[in-house]
Design brief:
heterodimer; A: 828 residues; 26-stranded antiparallel β-barrel; 3-stranded mixed beta sheet; B: 323 residues; mainly alpha
């Protein structure tokens, strides 16, 4: 295995944490619970009053509250238009008449019976793609079983079409009409490649075929619980999920990174996920213990998606090694995999108020599907075999959680907690000489970039936390906490980092009707040296590094990621967050609320005066004398995210105008802003001197400030009329979403402003329910849903709009759908 | 359309019926612990029955706050010695309440109403007597407990339909406090929460966990793998931020961007992938709309037009997540 700075992992922490958790879970001798005795004085009163209510005062009212009712609802819903977006999850994506069938059946014994049997069966959306059926039965206090069948449809697109045949299968071919010779190559020299926009064949009748981009999840759950005695119980559950359908996937042929020939194709989904759990639990008032085994098996019935190359047949395409050589490609589908976990958890009251809880979970995630070949293209020359026939991938997971908490007096509570989450990736590292996109003979130069080591990432997170809360008065509570998080990663620019967070909070009741809370947290994350070269040294061969990192003229090849980049999830960060909540009830019938959440993330570097300089001796970008100890770069040249903000503000009101009329409303405004910097280096090869200086700013730097803004409003009412026989109501929501970009570029770049992304959805729902008698009611519902979206990535981008990507006609959703439902419910 | 659906429905119904077959004979069987505690009759009422009669003398079927639906719940089964009504009936949770019995103007020992004299910890104590195991093992010290929530702030006990335990109605309960999430699920792209197909509790355990954000599983990735097991791998070519934390790129509660992405591609990808050549290019509005001159990294799926295996690839040729 190739060892680099961050590829080795320690085992001591893992062993120590596991031992501590195991020790905490050792059962402590305890006494079985004894049910409490009645207070003698209470007994006297009970004996005195127990003859008062021996039978119902009002039999009808009593039955209404205590009897088991069966109910069945049946009707129809009419949808006036097809819309994948409207029906994305609700099963109403197609125009037409759909059934409305819901039911609830079941019964149990009367509360004072000596029998405990019960059963319950529920059905929702029966006859729709969103059908849900549930059954529950058993004997209270003895055993229970639960069975559920659920379907979740996911519609993706309307009017999507493809040039491929066999959509839904794992073998896609092209129709005989497909001869993609460019009709007009004025913009591209014929010897280079044709322009997709010139693919006239796409307009030939019959070339494009409709394909539904949707999939369905069909889920069966079974759970059985056995109460062994007052202390012991056992649960076993099984979940089987079949996922079938088609998704849209982008695939490319050719080698040119920035100028490929790509196409959207229908990727089949045919998978099964099985999950099983077996748990045995022991529980008394002082001590609870639980031992569980979790199993998850993911099976993909398709291993590879084979497809014909739509660019095959172009003379320039086949003759130029930058493009593909042959007519077939293969895309690997997610490999089958497994996960196993044993979980031991427990809680114990050390004193009446002090509790220790612990969890130890040892898991293993494995994946060992046979590898596909480097290529499925028979025209290519493959000289080296794969280093192994399958990955033998394995990640061992360890979780240790400990928490000690106490409420020694009603005014004071405190807690200490520790959490250790380790994902130790044991997947073997090998050297692969990969073939790109089924489009080249296998390279043979060990100093080239086709030879790559895989980098199995391991990750470890340790969190220490202490919290305290104190009731200053009966109306004011304050709280505080400290948290320290330590992270370790392998094959990463930042091997170790830590984050310290201070939390402060207060809750107060200003009057009997007004209360609020305020929370503030400040966290600072920093880490070990940002090692720009770790990824390069761990992923490439030594020959490649030697060839590219000791020569100033080739400097631009010595880093995979720009040296001034600080990735947002790795780099230093200061985070401030504020939560404010106010609620008031000026009258018994009116409640008002205001909630705000503000988070500010500052990623900008601190303390460094200059950038690191390149050392021709070591072949590394090294700290200069002016850089700080962490090798920080000059903050003004930092690339990547420098700042991110998120603010969400909600006003809500609820008003019970009369006993029969209730109204509500809310308005939420949210803004998510991100500010990040980049530097265009694609011309570096032609101008290495510009890229090798220590200053990376200048005329090819760019900056994007994005603002996602959401305005959401909801209003509604419910009213009961005619002595509660008629209930009517309405709900309306409107969500206006907008993403805007402010794009700033250096003088060496050209560009134009980016359009906004917009979505505006209004949904109106009206309903009325009339109770014909106490058991029969009729319900009518009306839904109006209007959705307008603008997305420059999809608007007017059809099958051959782009000059080198064949699309499937995906458009931003725009629809206006109305639906009317009428149903009758009968209760018996 | 309806015919096909009904045929499929029939198959499902038959399957469900077969699975439920054990229901019939077992309904009649005698439970192991049922006879020990309660058999009631008018002439010789049990102590539990006496408590019920005493309390329902005032809290009867026409009382302004209906309480008697608890008899249709697990709590109300007298023949189950583990249930409150198999123990001390109403007093199991509300305490002996001697003062209240003597003088109804006095509050019972434990009152669960919003304006009760009891603290949240006092309200929770009766519940935790039985419910501190399993998924509630880490309630003490969890975010909801330390924020002084009471079980009854979310759960309704005197009804056979506890909204928070029904996937379709559960979000309404959570949104009472988590107002920003209410708006999130209405965004253009979200999980099917408002459709009642995914509930908050599919990802979160509100009763307390040792993990972050009250997540049901140990961490973010394991929580997501529950439904997205195809992303689990391990893969030959891993994508580091994906292996570490799905929320590096996705906002699971809702987004204006497809696939719940935090940013639109290529802008999301470029926050990390500032590399030579096209990854570091500045992608502007040039060529938009529909001129065909816009960069292929900008339109349709952006970077994913070619690099679609971003969650990891097991193809030996998939180093660039293109296979």
């Amino acid at each position: 295995m190739k060892m680099t700075n961050h590829s080795e992992r320690g085992w001591k922490k893992r062993a120590l944490c596991t031992a501590v958790a195991a020790a905490c879970l050792v059962p402590v001798a305890t006494h079985a619970d004894a049910f409490g005795d009645f207070d003698p004085e209470a007994m006297k009163e009970i004996e005195k009053f127990s003859t008062l209510h021996t039978k119902p005062y009002d039999q009808a009212a009593y039955d209404e509250l205590t009897s088991y009712h069966q109910s069945v609802e049946a009707g129809l819903i009419v949808v006036d238009k097809d819309s994948a977006k409207f029906g994305r999850f609700n099963g109403l994506g197609e125009e037409g008449v759909h059934p409305v069938i819901n039911f609830q059946l079941g019964t149990g014994e009367t509360y004072n019976s000596s029998q405990t049997g019960f059963w319950l069966a529920k059905g929702r959306d029966v006859g729709l793609d969103t059908i849900n059926l549930q059954a529950e039965f058993g004997q209270h206090g003895n055993w229970e079983a639960y069975v559920e069948y659920d379907q979740i449809p996911v519609f993706r697109n309307d009017d999507t079409r493809t040039i491929f045949r066999g959509a839904g299968s794992a073998n896609l071919t092209l129709p005989p009409e497909w001869t993609p010779a460019p009709g007009n190559v004025a913009n591209d020299p014929p010897t280079y490649f044709g322009d997709v926009r010139d693919f006239d064949d796409i307009n030939t009748p019959g070339v494009l075929k409709d394909v539904d981009i949707r999939h369905d999840r069909k889920i069966i759950k079974v759970l059985v619980e056995k109460i062994i005695d007052n202390e012991w119980s056992a649960v076993a559950s099984y979940r089987h999920e079949k996922k079938e359908g088609v998704k849209m996937t982008g695939v490319t042929m050719g080698l040119s990174g920035g100028n490929p020939r790509a196409f959207m194709l229908p990727e089949p989904i045919d998978t099964v996920t099985q999950q099983a759990n077996a748990t045995i639990a022991y529980s008394t008032r002082e001590l609870q213990l639980q031992l569980a085994y979790d199993l998850s098996l993911f099976t993909n019935n398709d291993e590879i998606l084979m497809f014909s190359n739509p660019y095959n047949g172009l003379a320039a395409h086949d003759s130029d090694s930058w493009w593909s050589n042959g007519g077939q490609g293969g895309y690997s589908l997610p490999p089958s995999n497994q996960a196993h976990k044993i979980i031991a958890s427990g809680g114990y009251y050390i004193t009446d108020s002090m509790r220790l809880s612990a969890e130890l979970a040892l898991g293993r995630m494995t994946q060992d599907e046979d590898f596909l070949g480097y290529t499925v293209n028979p025209n290519l020359v493959v000289t080296e075999p794969l280093p192994r026939s399958s990955l033998d991938g394995q990640i061992n997971t360890t979780l240790v959680g400990l928490r000690l908490t106490d409420r020694p007096m009603s005014k004071l509570n405190w807690g200490l907690s520790f959490r250790y989450d380790d994902r130790d990736n044991k997947t073997p590292v090998d050297l692969y000489n990969y073939i790109r996109n089924d489009s080249q003979d296998q390279p043979t130069n060990l100093a080239g970039n086709s030879y790559r080591y895989n980098e199995p990432l391991s990750y470890q997170e340790i969190v220490y936390a202490a919290d305290v809360g104190y009731a200053v008065t009966s109306d004011i509570n304050v709280s505080g906490g400290l948290e320290r998080k330590e992270l370790e990663r392998t094959f990463s620019e930042v091997a170790e980092s830590d984050e310290n967070t201070l939390k402060l909070g207060a809750r107060w009741r200003m009057t009997d009707t007004v209360q609020g809370s305020l929370k503030y947290a400040h966290g600072e994350r920093s880490g070990s040296d940002y090692d720009v070269f770790e990824v390069m040294h761990s992923g490439f061969t030594e020959e490649y590094v030697a060839a590219n990192c000791t020569n100033m003229a080739l400097m631009q090849r010595c880093w995979e990621y720009h040296p001034n980049l600080r990735k947002f999830y790795l780099g230093d960060r200061d985070r401030d967050s504020v939560n404010l909540s106010l609620s008031a009830m000026p009258t018994e019938r009116l409640s008002l609320g205001f909630h705000a959440t503000i988070v500010n993330d500052d990623y900008s570097m601190k303390g460094a005066a200059t950038d690191p300089a390149y050392s021709t001796d070591s072949g590394y970008w090294a700290d200069t004398g002016n850089a700080n100890a962490d090798g920080d770069i000059n903050a003004s040249n930092q690339l990547g995210v420098r700042n991110a903000e998120n603010g969400s503000y909600t006003l809500d009101v609820a008003f019970q105008a009369t006993d029969g009329l209730s109204l509500y409303g809310f308005y939420t405004r949210e803004k998510i802003a991100t500010d990040y910097y980049g530097h265009q280096t694609q011309n570096a090869q032609n101008d290495p001197s510009a890229e090798t200086s220590t200053t990376f700013g200048g005329d090819r730097e760019w900056r994007i400030q994005t603002d996602d803004e959401y305005d959401t409003i909801g209003l509604g009412f419910k009213q009961r009329l005619m002595g509660n026989r008629l209930e009517v109501g309405a709900d309306i929501t409107r969500v206006v979403s907008n993403t805007s970009y402010k794009h700033t570029i250096g003088s060496g770049l050209t560009g134009a402003p980016l359009p906004d992304i917009e979505a505006d959805q209004t949904t109106l729902s009206l309903f009325g329910r009339y109770k014909v008698n106490k058991d029969l009611s009729v319900t009518a519902r009306y839904i109006y849903d209007k959705y307008d979206a603008k997305e420059f990535g999809f608007d007017d981008v059809t099958y051959n709009t782009m000059n080198n990507v064949l699309g499937m006609g995906e458009q931003a959703p725009n629809y206006k759908v109305q639906a009317i439902a009428v149903s009758a419910s009968y209760r018996f | 359309m309806i015919g096909t659906r009904l045929s499929r429905l029939a198959r499902v119904a038959i399957g469900m019926a077969l699975m439920c077959l054990p229901m019939a004979p077992l309904m009649a069987a005698e439970p192991a612990s049922a006879t020990a505690t309660a058999t009631a009759s008018t002439d010789n009422p049990t102590i539990q029955e006496k408590v019920v009669r005493t309390c329902t003398a005032c809290h009867h079927e026409n009382y302004k706050i209906p309480v008697m639906s608890i008899f249709k719940t697990k709590h109300g089964v007298m023949a189950d010695s583990r249930a409150p009504f198999g123990d001390r009936a109403c007093m199991s949770c509300h305490g002996d309440s001697v003062e209240h019995l003597k003088d109804i103007t006095q509050q019972p020992d434990v009152l669960f109403a919003e304006h009760s004299h009891n603290t949240p910890a006092e309200k929770n104590a009766p519940c935790l007597t039985c419910h501190e195991s399993g998924i509630r093992m880490h309630w003490k010290g969890g975010q909801h407990e330390t924020n002084n929530l009471a079980c009854v702030d979310c759960h309704k006990i005197h009804t056979d339909h506890d909204k928070v335990r029904d996937k379709k109605t559960q979000p309404q309960v959570c949104f009472k406090c988590h107002k920003d999430r209410q708006a999130d699920v209405l965004k253009p792209y979200s999980h099917p929460i408002k459709e009642g197909k995914v509930a908050c509790s599919d990802c979160h355990n509100p009763h307390g966990t040792v993990g972050p954000k009250l997540l049901k599983k140990n961490n973010v990735v394991e929580t997501c793998y529950q439904c997205h097991a195809e992303k689990r791998g391990p893969f030959l070519w891993e994508h580091p931020p994906v292996r570490e934390d799905c929320t590096n790129c996705h906002n699971p509660h809702g987004s204006i961007h497809q696939a719940l992405l935090k940013q639109r591609v290529p802008f999301l990808c470029q926050q990390c992938h500032l590399m030579n050549f096209h990854p570091s290019g500045t992608y502007s509005g040039t060529g938009i709309p529909s001129g065909g001159g816009a960069a292929q990294q900008l339109l349709l799926r952006g970077c994913e037009n070619c690099h679609s295996a971003v969650h990891g690839s097991n193809h030996p040729g998939g180093r660039r997540w293109q296979r």
